[in-house]
Automatic annotation (TrEMBL):
GO BP terms, alphabetized: AMP salvage; purine nucleobase metabolic process; purine ribonucleoside salvage
Keyword Transferase: yes
A Pfam family reported for this protein in Swiss-Prot or TrEMBL: PfkB
Nucleotide-binding recorded as keyword: yes
Cofactors required: Mg(2+)
InterPro entries (alphabetical): Adenokinase, Carboh/pur_kinase_PfkB_CS, PfkB_dom, Ribokinase-like
GO cellular component: cytosol; nucleus
Top-level enzyme category: transferase
Protein name (database record): Adenosine kinase
Positions annotated as active site in the UniProt record: 308 (proton acceptor)
Species in which this protein is naturally found: Rotaria magnacalcarata
CDD domains: adenosine_kinase
MF annotations from Gene Ontology: adenosine kinase activity; ATP binding
Length: 359
């Protein structure tokens, strides 16, 4: 079914919460990386030596681009894009009171998101909106992230009656694992709400460091998780550090994750593990494990955001009531288009048809 003929969903059907970042992307010479002691294809947190990095990009590289980033926000943009329905996704996270907030707000709004940002204001300290410098040298990318205000989200913002209207209206909830490092109490509140109202709670393993150092927070949420996403590296880290599984077999890990105790036993847990160009694994508790081949694009420009895009496409088709198989295809299509663009971006219009988009 082509995106233009999809059923119209209610505004606010999908609710995402996470760490909002303004991606500032620019083509730079290798000498620029060297000046900041950076490496091609690296991904680091900004240090004191990078404090003027963003401003230098804005001043010296006029062809820079702004993208509303952060893992969960990327997924919300992908879902909105494939559905071609502005307003269907609500996104919440914490930003600063600065020009980066306005730039991020403009970029996210242009993507069709309904925003419920918390604005961190503290006269005693200036905390900027989170950013990620994306420094492009040929086919290489060096990422320098500063989480900034994203680290200051509080549950009070989530509980505010005006904001909680978004929660009450939504039917599907999603957060990436990165948010567990910021406000685990908000995650658990969302889990409890989803359980009480029998709505869907979806989450992501997100990164090996999350699985290793914050895995206990993930494990606390797991009983509430209806849909769990991750890639092969993350799932192996989680299996090793949280489940004590002595295996690297992704199918076995997916099966084990799907069969972990679940609070709402009426719905079996669905686990989806992507493996880049290798087949995507689908495991549903008590059922056979399936593999889905991945269609290779004619070109690959940038793989950053592919996983986020996959989740967005999947959630969009989940919201439409489609099968897991069709949702995986929709997710794969979003990732397919994303990796052919620079940054986590997409063509103007999708052209997805689940019957024809096959490997």
């Amino acid at each position: 079914m082509a995106s233009s003929t999809l059923e119209r969903l209610d505004d606010g059907t999908i609710f995402g919460i996470g760490n909002p970042l303004l991606d500032i992307s620019a083509d730079v010479p290798v000498s620029f990386l060297e000046a900041y002691n950076l490496k091609a294809n690296d991904a680091i947190l900004a240090g004191s030596q990078h404090k003027d990095l963003n401003e230098t990009i804005l001043r010296d590289y006029p062809n820079h681009q702004f993208v509303a980033g952060g893992s969960t926000q990327n997924s919300m943009r992908a879902a909105t894009w494939i559905l071609q329905q502005p307003g269907v996704c609500v996104y919440m996270g914490c930003v600063g009171q600065d020009k980066y907030h306005q730039l991020l707000h403009d970029a996210a709004s242009k993507s069709g998101l309904t925003l419920a940002y918390q604005i961190y204001e503290n006269p005693a300290e200036h905390v900027q909106t989170g950013t990620c410098a994306v420094l492009i040298t040929g086919n290489d990318r060096s990422l320098v992230a500063n989480l900034g205000a994203a680290n200051h989200f509080t549950i009070d913002h989530f509980n505010d009656p005006k904001n909680h209207e978004h929660v009450e209206k939504a039917k599907i909830f999603y957060t990436a694992g990165f948010f567990y490092t910021v406000s685990p109490d908000t995650v658990m509140r969302l889990c409890e709400h989803a359980d009480q109202t029998k709505k869907l709670f979806c989450t992501n393993l997100s990164a090996p460091f999350v699985c290793e150092f914050f895995g206990d927070r993930l494990m606390k949420a797991i009983p509430y998780v209806d849909y769990l996403f991750g890639n092969e590296t993350e799932s192996r880290s989680f299996a090793k550090n949280q489940l004590n599984l002595d295996t690297l077999n992704v199918k076995e890990i997916a099966k084990a994750l799907s069969e972990l105790p679940k609070k709402n036993s009426e719905r079996p847990r669905v686990v989806i593990i992507t493996q880049g160009a290798d087949p995507t694994i689908l495991a549903i508790a008590g059922q056979n494990i399936q593999e889905f081949p991945v269609k290779k694009p004619p070109k690959i420009i940038d793989t950053n955001g592919a996983g986020d895009s996959f989740v967005g496409g999947f959630l969009a088709y989940l919201a439409l009531g489609k099968s897991n198989e069709e949702a995986i295809q929709a997710g794969a299509y979003c990732a397919y288009e994303c990796i052919q663009q620079s940054g986590c971006t997409y063509p103007e219009k999708p052209s997805f048809d689940a019957k024809t988009f096959v490997a």
